[in-house]
Amino acid sequence: MSPQKKPGSKSRTKRAKRRSPGLPSKADILKFIQSASSHVGKREIARAFQVKGTDKIDLKRLLREMADEGLIKGRRKRVSAADGLPPVTVIEITGRDADGEFIAHPAKWDDEGSAPPRILLVSRRNDPGPAPGVGDRVLARLTRLEEGDPSGVAYEARLIKRLPREPSRLLGIFRAIPGGGGVIDPIDRKQLREWSVHQGDTHGAKDGDLVRFEIEKSRRFGPMRARVVELFGNPDAQGAVSLIALHSLGLPDEFPEAVLNDAEKLIAPTLETHDDLRDIPFITIDPPDARDHDDAVWAAPDDDAANPEGWVVMVG
Length: 316
Description:
By secondary structure, this protein is an alpha+beta fold. The protein has three domains: 4-162, CATH 2.40.50.140; 169-248, CATH 2.40.50.140; 269-316, no CATH class. The chain is built from five helices and 16 strands. The protein has helices at residues 26-35, 42-48, 55-68, 238-248, 257-264; strands at residues 4-5, 72-74, 79-81, 88-96, 102-106, 118-122, 137-145, 153-162, 169-176, 182-186, 195-197, 210-215, 226-233, 283-284, 296-301, 311-315. The protein has a five-stranded mixed barrel with strand order 4-5-6-8-7. A five-stranded antiparallel sheet has the order 11-10-9-12-13, covered by helices on one side. Strands 14-15-16 form a three-stranded antiparallel sheet, with no helix packed on it. The relative contact order is 0.10. Mean pLDDT is 78; it is low at 7-17.
């Protein structure tokens, strides 16, 4: 079990929500569950701590919070203390809290009956190596909080080492072979090898294209093969250069799954409070090698008699 830490420590200044005076603390509930000689549920907890009346509703909410924080597991009629995370474990950074600090979950969580505990990754100036980011996995030392906090954090974590990203998808330059198929030279110079690509796995790549590829599962005999999954075209193009730079530094170039799920829930804004200019044939005026193409212009003779020989010009 990892050491416990009271939530009033300097690293967390937020105070827990006020609890009804008729309710036990989370620490008291955990102690009761761990010391019980038979199965324990909401009814047994309420009886042991003499929780009555409307306080039972608050007790149900408190037990749900404890399950969400990873402190307990099980159903309403039978709960047990969740197995504590080991003091040193691998965690995955999934986002940030309201203060901008990293929130993480255990990299491996097999208990389908409860949510993985929320972990606060506390950064320090002397943390080793480059700073981690959302989507990274790190080896961390955990300290369990006795009561959690208003945001549901159950553990604090201190960085030990940032772990390399899993190379499930890589970047490389596709080299076509006469007759079909080709090979991929990896962008990462540390990988002193190339991968063969069968004709049906090129995804339409042309000789010299920057591609993202997946390594096919290893076969018992023969060399490992690659399958092209995305094309980026000329590796000297501005967007491709940026992508290569991100890849070489181990920085993510894809949004985490949680962010993509949140984006899918968004509702597109209506045009009720906007001017619809989609019928105007704007012409973009950015050069071909610009980082973005967001400058546009449109002009036409003004048919207003008050503006003879005048023009209407729109610049975006």
